[in-house]
Amino acid sequence: MDAPRESEPTHMKNRTTVERKSERELVVTRTINGPVRLVFEAWTKPELFRQWWVPKSMGMSLLSCEMDVRVGGRYRLEFAHGDSQSAFFGTYKEVTPHSRLVWTNEESDEGSVTTVTFAEKGGKTLLVMHELYPSKEALDAAGTGAADAMGETFEQLDELLVTLGASVGRS
Amino acid sequence: MVQYTPARLDDSFAALSDATRRGVLEQLGRSDASITDLAEKFHMTLTGMKKHVGVLEETGLVTTEKVGRVRTCKLGPRRLEKETAWLERYRRLWDARFDELDKVVDQLKRKEKTDGRTKRE
Q: How far is it, in rounded angstroms, from Cα B2 to Cα A23?
């Protein structure tokens, strides 16, 4: 690979936001420091995708990653966490280069439909990721699962929230 | 339903980042209290406590009501449920993911630069 070039601190860190739009919808937004064609490439080429989809802080590793990015094409991701393994798979419903990706999650009947839109502005790309779940319960379950993957960072705060939640319930 | 907009979440976490304010919330979870009560309990000046209560009030975690000369504080309508915590954790997950995506895109940009025109059509 390239010689290390660490002289310049690259960019200010961008902000990621999450909003629960309704009982069944979550919207995540983030600006990425690069033109849309590169960002889209990183979402659609498995060898690039696997470099970022499973950050270290998730405490998981990606065993395999197959992606046939075209309408009707399928994807399959296999993870290992500790001794257990899991797989995520589904189908691409829409593939509009440099603009829009839609895919389904088919591990269960309660899978979500995810729509990602890419919009370039001033050499940067705004990502808007919209997840639609079949029910409120499905969103809660999926969200909790993904959040749990993030480990103990927030355990302390969780405890406080539970304590407070219980005392609020009392009134 | 209550909307957990990013701004509100940020406010809530900022409000909760302070030990005194967390203490105040726990105290109010047990019983309502006046600002004077709270100031005494936490060994603070009235002005200091008013500021803390103000921050909590802005996020909806606490409401206050003035009866006569006494301002009584109680837990607000904003329900602090697990949802707040999981949304923040979910945000962290995506934040970590997108930080990595930024790195990948950065590498692609550099590669394009190094490869220069040779690779361009």
A: 10
